[in-house]
Amino acid sequence: MLLHMLNRKLAISVQENAQSEVGYISAGKKISKPFLSQPHQIVCAPDGRVICTNTGRNVVTVIDLEKPGIYQEVGVSPVRWDRLSLDAMIGDHINSVFLKNDQLFVVCHRFNKGSQLATLSYPSLELISLKNLSGFTGLHNIWVTEEEQYISCYSETGSIVNVVSGDVLWQAGSPIYTRGLAASNEYIVVGESQKTGRDIRGNSLSALWILERQSWRVMDYIALGQFGCVNEVRLLDVADEAHHGYRFENLDQLLADCNNEHAALHHTRDRSLEHNTYEEITKQAIAQSVLATKAIGGIWKDYNFILDAAITLADGSKKVDKNALCLAILRHETNLTVSSFAFDYELSLSEEPSHVSAVLGYHGSFDDTHMHIILLQRMMNDALLSILQHNGSEWITIRGLNVKNLPLSGTMKVTVSQNDISVEVQQKEVLRLPPARIGLEYCNGELGIRWSGATVKPIKGTN
């Protein structure tokens, strides 16, 4: 069974959406009529039908090739289109399906609105439940294990997570995009893509991670080359437990066809990355992942990453260059009792801009918006402290609250109570003010850390 996506260019207007239903399903010589708009994933069901994510139409569509022109479809919301334009992302962006017994699990990516997991009955496609996946957005893939783990790619942070427990199971530790998940009884395979613009995605570096299933330990890293984004990963010679659960039929013929295509591609691919380069990429990637996964279960355990473009250093601190941004928010259960939090910081002497902030009152719905920040920014040989607010459309500096001549590296601690906010740098209080002075109600949002062109390490035990 094959899913065909013709003209994969993103539809960016209502007119283009209406003309985007050009994807179709084929099985041998049987070919459906075009009915899919921007499809992402399919599953072959035991009843002989094919379950398709009809993403552009914001529904799951089921087709039986023995009954041409008859479709069964269901959405999880009344919205009928995934997008109306590049900026009007109104749909659920249904991108992943997993069938287990008589239940169909559906991941709704939902852009920056917070991902959801829908559970449908199968084959009737009646909605059983729709769960908001707190702390996650932009998910890809869903795999429900026999141990009732709900595993998915948290793509923006380059990690694999259990979307029900909220646990981060593994992280790449570098600014990459995870998408594509396959599993045998021993190993898990994860697809890696680079974070690039759509115009150069086709030539960016592709890679695969091989993880040990029981421990989530990295077994291998395979740098494939400059083949663009990894959209899906499947195991063929063994039962793929993260998908259909059986060995691929006619594998020999498929491999022969792939070998012929590879031979033609071999003459045209970019050879600029030589063997030694791939070895170095592999070595660095594995080292970064080991550090990141250890840190996520250690000093960063109390934080959810909204944006994570950092590399993880040996001591668990996270370093971000000037062209990227990290935003880490204290977990909800932590925020119930938190009154203060602290972190070590180091602003860059060479990069500009270089800044780190304590975040107060975050309610930005998985985006870099809607918050107050206590900002430390490098100004020549010192740091300047100021307070800014993002009102949903722009940053506004709150006047009269600057503190000059602060160190470029040290420890920042923020304590929030009903009556005041206290800021300490290097164990010296540099600012105290009531929350109302900056238009902030006590604990009316979440707390966290935001930084760019800098290195940050949280200090545990400061609540």
From TrEMBL:
Protein name: Uncharacterized protein
Annotated source species: Legionella fallonii LLAP-10
